[in-house]
Amino acid sequence: MNSNREELRIGFYVCHCGHNIAATVDCAEVARYVGTLPHVALSREYKYMCSDPGQELIQQDIREHKLNRVVVASCSPLLHEHTFRGATEAGGLNPFYFHMVNIREHNSWVHTDRKEATEKAKALAQAAIERVAHHKALEVKRVKIHADVLVVGGGIAGIHAAMTMANAGKKVYLVEREPTIGGHMAKFDKTFPTLDCAACILTPKMSEVGNHPNITLWTYSEVTKVDGYVGNYKVTVKHKPRYIVEDACVGCMECIDACVYKTPKFEDEFNEGLGKRKPVFIPFPQATPQVVIIDPETCLNLKTGKCKKTCVEACADRMAIDFTQQETFDEIEVGTMIVATGFKTFDAKRVPAYGYGVYPNVYTALEVERLVNASGPTGGEVITRDGRHPKSIGIIHCVGSRDKKTNVWCSRVCCMYSMKLALLLKEHTGAEIYNFYIDIRTPGKGYEEFYNKLLDEGVHFIRGRVGEVTDWAMTPEEEGKLTIRVEDTLAGYVRRIPVDMVVLATGLEPQQDAQDVRRLFNLSCGGEGWFLERHPKLAPVSTFTDGIFIAGGCQGPRDIPDTVAQAGAAAAECLALIDKGYVEQEPNTAFVLAEECSGCKSCIPLCPYTAIAFDESSKVAVINEALCKGCGTCVASCPSGSIVQNLFEDDEVFSEIKGVLAYD
Amino acid sequence: MTKDWKPRIVAFFCNWCTYTAADLAGVSRLKYASNVRVIRLMCSGRVDPQFILEALTHGADGVLIGGCHPFDCHYVEGNYKMLRRFQLLKRLLADMGIEDQRVRLEWISAAEGDKVKRVINDLTQQIQALGPLGFPSKVADWDREMTELEHHVTATAAGVCACGESEMAAAKPEVAHV
Known about the structure:
The structure holds two protein chains of two kinds. By secondary structure, chain A is of the alpha/beta class. Chain A folds into five domains: 10-140, Rossmann fold (3-Layer(aba) Sandwich); 149-182 and 193-240 and 329-342 and 520-580, FAD/NAD(P)-binding domain, CATH 3.50.50.60; 254-325, no CATH class; 344-509, FAD/NAD(P)-binding domain; 590-645, Alpha-Beta Plaits. Chain A has 17 helices and 34 strands. Chain A has a five-stranded parallel beta sheet, with helices on one face. Chain A has a five-stranded parallel beta sheet with strand order 20-27-21-22-23. In chain A, helix 2 packs across helix 3. The mean pLDDT of chain A is 95. Chain B is built from six helices and four strands, in the order E-H-E-H-E-H-E-H-H-H. Chain B has helices at residues 18-27, 49-57, 78-95, 113-130, 135-159, 164-177, and strands at residues 9-14, 36-41, 62-67, 103-107. In chain B, helix 3 links the parallel strand 3 and strand 4. Residues 168-178 of chain B have low confidence and may be disordered. Chains A and B meet through helix 4, helix 5, helix 16 and helix 17 of A and helix 1, strand 2, helix 2 and helix 3 of B.
């Protein structure tokens, strides 16, 4: 360990990053200038500092030139600080004798004037040189990781992640807010491009989850509170009352038959409102867990208290029905978490020109998935809401996608699922199918082949964004039909195409409560509301909160193969942390200089983690290092300046301020 | 003021939102004025008002503080602590004759790379219009005044004249301020 009294010998390295930096910043000039600053023992430029030879250079220089401080000017510290700290350590120095200067993201990539960019690089480098002189040797603390994992969301992403980790022998809590797991995939009829039956590939996985000894499955439950930090999270889970004792219910469904409502009367959410259910119901036959649920909004007994309770009679000595059930809470401890809360589909009513909710024969794609499904509301028979068998069907792509008025992003799956539905509808009805598209996007294995197959099958493709869907007939053929008005941009004129049924390929959107979930788990969101990954390419399932990973549609629109791949990746990230057994924590915690503390206690209420206590015997504030997360708020507020934050000491920041301003 | 004078702005960005947003601006290759020098802190709550004064004293023409949006602070509420301090500091800065527009607090989330660009360009323009702050010379003037006053006080105290008492009483709080 170097003492601060020892003569300072700073090594400075400016990285070209190929042309990324060197094209805008005169690296040679920066290196020359920094070389003239006091205490700089050597100043170099190099093409790729993060490469092995670049790192080797640092190590060699530390040994040969007896460097005791290292500064690298390259990309963002969020990307490579860790790399260079490693190189510094490998060279035999304490890794915290290193400081990084961001001259790529904050300089060469955002400026065009070479002179200005070079001046800025010099100023930032000088600041780092002055700052690093004040750096102290610090120790990385290791925190043990709790081996249990929480997976939030029981769609295909959550299911796959939970299974992967449970099979590796970890204890997994899977929390799903709906009464059953399965998510959107459970509603699909077939999956593109292979036309696998969605239920056939999903439901075995669902029941495996339900029966797995390592998985605690909590459906109809929500996470309400998250405390702690990586390796040691405390999570509160709320169980909503389903008015059924889950352990007692055997899924015989006799209560459903016995319900005082003789016929199903209420809108069935699972079938997108196309079918009816009773107040006591099971979402779909393969629901997991195989447990019914009572809807308090429609159950006569829960609403009025006046009911013959024939369901209770039918349940008899199983006694699974409990009308007195209340919300309950569980507090669990986990080390890592996967957030896989999925997406919602675009509300087609937001594009009024397409007549959804106005014309009964306009459907959303998800409704059609249920309509063509053998266990759907019509048993797979395609009958329109007004009771007709459609002879012609129009499928409108990009509803709520690639549109400045709604959502600008491409939802990625709509082209493919539209073509899948085109094929299924053709099989089921023999109707003429028209696809109205802007571009056909088929980026996936076997996807373009699927498109070609559809062309061979005689499905029509008309390129153009549909202007409107109307029931106003201009010709006798349009009488009693819905007419799709579109500019065919390949033919170059406006066409009117009468059809019996319109399918809207609605896009994918962040969940309604994505912002609440984001805050709960301390995640970040992109502008559109999708959860933000730590790095779009190199850390696609990590988040800015250590130990919390994301998978599936909550991060952005994606199809099933990508979702499963991502879920596997998130599971692997959790397993890697768990099996390592500990995490290294950035030593940026704060501590109190007892001899300078006046005992005013003003810092104590400021700490959001209650890490600061008042020591009655010595009359000074004391910071519990294990609880401190290193924000530095107390440091900035201490009237006597007696709190110090490691890595962000006053002297370090002050010298950085002077440094950036020292250069004109 | 010379024609090619360029303002110098020091920015304090929180690690989790605004610094990341500035990284995003870079990755997105947005272009903005090169006048801002960013100093990374873990949280806007770490921004000591002294940092801002220090920057102005050492020749900054403006200061920008970037933190997470309300409800979004990585450390729960560091941004609120900063906001409170900022309101007090603004009054102090006004008393020192520093224009309101020179010191700015902005909430910029990790996704708002375009906001980094907008805010930096806007602030640079505003400060360009205001001209140099010249705070270091003002501070030097104040320092000189204080030293003179100190000399005067010590001289009168040493002189032990009859009138010294009342003068000292008036001067004392000023000296204590140093």
